[in-house]
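Take a look at this chain, tokens included, and explain the fold to me:
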Amino acid sequence: MMKQFMTGILTAAVLTMSSCGSGTKDPATYNNSIITVINGSEKHITDMNAAMNASDYAKAEQVRSDWEKSLNEDIKKVEDLGDFKGDANFQKAVLDGLNGYKKIVTEDYPKLIELRKNKTPDAATESALLDNINKAFENMGNGVNKASTEFENKYKG
């Protein structure tokens, strides 16, 4: 699922970059700047999955903490990029996705890590946490892909 999301984003980025003209604040550069920020979460997702699959909860907590710091920086970067010539739709979709990640990183992952670390079987809680996490990934992918496509179509050069 995460690979499909990243493939979709990268495809949208390549299509946008290849179809846009150049300029001081051209669409391709703007899109590339945003996609670069988003791609930073891929490493954290991979590292988190590896730590959780290995039952290394100390590592999972470190990844979670690093990811939270990174998300704060990423949100700031996207905010600092600003809108594209008055159009904030793409920026807003990315910020919504990053804030969705931040919510699971600060709320759901700590609970999941603690639940698994303490070996407290609670299938319903674990399932609800995993559903929240997967829904955040899905929302980010869908929201960003839709906004990226709309951005590409609107600013084709």
About this structure: Confidence is low (pLDDT under 50) at residues 10-24. The chain has five helices and no strands.
